[in-house]
Amino acid sequence: MARMKFLCDADRCIECNACVTACKNEHEVPWGINRRRVVTIADGKPGERSVSMACMHCTDAPCAAVCPVNCFYTTADGVVLHSKDLCIGCGYCFYACPFGAPQYPKVGNFGSRGKMDKCTYCAGGPEADGSKEEYEKYGANRLAEGKLPLCAEMCSTKSLLAGDGEIIAQIYKERVLKRGYGSGAWGWKTAYRETIES
Amino acid sequence: MSSFARFIRPAIGAWALLLLVMACPVPSPAQQINPTASSVNEQKLLQEMDRIQGRVSIPDQRSSVLMQPAGREWREFRNVALRWIGGVSVLGMLAVLVIFYLTRGMVRLESGRSGRTIVRFNTFERFVHWMTATCFIILAISGLNITFGRPLLLPLIGFDAFSEWSQWAKYAHNYLSFPFTIGVVLIFLMWIGGNIPNKVDLEWIKRGGGLFGHDHPPARRFNAGQKGIYWIVVIGGGLVAATGYLLMFPFYVTGIEGMQMAQIVHAIVAVLFIAAMLAHIYIGTIGMEGAFEAMGSGEVDVNWAREHHSLWLDQELARTGPNDSQPQPRHAASAAE
């Protein structure tokens, strides 16, 4: 089985935010919730870089480890998903997540935290693949249709890569070799405890 | 004049352009261009600060934090350290109380009951006590559920039932925090007068509070042990309330690191608080004869007051008149008035 990962080649990201828009549209993500965002570091200064970031679907995911009701599960593809039926909206996954991925709709609990929402790697949730319930709770299940996450698929500069970890790491390595530079796979050390040698 | 200027101006311009071109260094084609040499670097940023922050163009400015691996230490605290601290303090206190009960037994009223009572806590004081106590018990159970429910209760009742219960427990935890906090504030205000440590407490502590043997060190309205409980409630309650509200209203005051710290303080203070309250519940019920009445009916037996709060009893009797002899039944006394 593949081990699905995200890789953002910061030397290619032009901060067009198309990945953010595509994600919101594909899953009909409610207002105020962003499963993916583009962060620009050292904005306007020499050496600035933009990184598109969402849930990294970590190995030994911290969110799953700290969840009081154990609502997370990892699929055979290494995608970290959760059940909104079990989630109680306590916010613990948000304290543990290194990437700020969990999002909470402002309902219930004094409007601070409803049931958590995050990037599903376009892989839906525990409901039947492609079902109406699944779409309403988690959005489209592209993975079940044999497609990769839309954010990466439509990235205009192919900065954001999604797919099997070994394959996208290989693509990135070849890029670095050919162009002679690379600022590394952002977040990989934190999420997967590995770096891509370049 | 104008013809000379017309002649000299392009000449000066040409010379200036030549100088400019010569002054500029021409990049040698053999030199490899490496834009990342001067670009921001993940490892360097993480070493400089424990997180990487930038700018986002979406309205949610909190999402501008790209990475903060500090959650890993918090995870260790929550899943390992807290379970040890909580388990040892709560189970340890229970073990101490069981051993104490088995060896010492209930602290008896040595002079027996006089049949005459004295008001110890009025209706308002008892209302505040029980409001706070009820909230505390529910907050404690729902709080322990967040830390210990997953390994202990979840395997017994299954995912759906546990999630349903935890959802209600979370709501109870959040909403009951308000009456609890009000209770702590009222307790602070209404009993502060009797809870300032003084010399009597030193004597009381020196004599072990009379917990062992048949000693009865003198005490005013509150002995040193009760003063300890009072300050645990006021300081501990204040801390759990403050940190709890930081967690309940995320980002109003503090960001993620602040919330991690708040959760650590909240959880440690809470489990120690629970352990302390177990001791309080013990001595107020099965641990001491005649103690529960103080918070039950609000009136304690005069002999109980003499044994445990001699200075307070003297003070009360002096205040209500010279009536230090011949204890009479309460009803007879009130009928005579």
From TrEMBL, chain A:
Tell me which residues make up the 4Fe-4S ferredoxin-type domain. Answer: 4-34, 78-107
Q: Which InterPro entries match?
A: 4Fe4S_Fe-S-bd (IPR017896), 4Fe4S_Fe_S_CS (IPR017900), ET_IronSulfur_Cluster-Binding (IPR050954)
What would you give as a GO molecular function for this chain, any one?
A: 4 iron, 4 sulfur cluster binding
Residue ranges spanning the membrane: these are: none
What superkingdom heads the lineage?
Answer: Bacteria
CDD domains (UniProt xref)? DMSOR_beta_like
Q: Does the keyword Metal-binding apply?
A: yes
What are the entry keywords?
Answer: 4Fe-4S, Iron, Iron-sulfur, Metal-binding
Cleaved signal peptide residues: none
Q: Is this entry keyworded 4Fe-4S?
A: yes
Q: Which Pfam families match?
A: Fer4_11
NCBIfam families cross-referenced by the UniProt entry: FDH3_beta
Instruction: Spell out the PANTHER family in the cross-references.
Output: PROTEIN NRFC, PROTEIN NRFC HOMOLOG
What's the protein name? Answer: Formate dehydrogenase
What is the originating organism of this protein?
Bradyrhizobium neotropicale
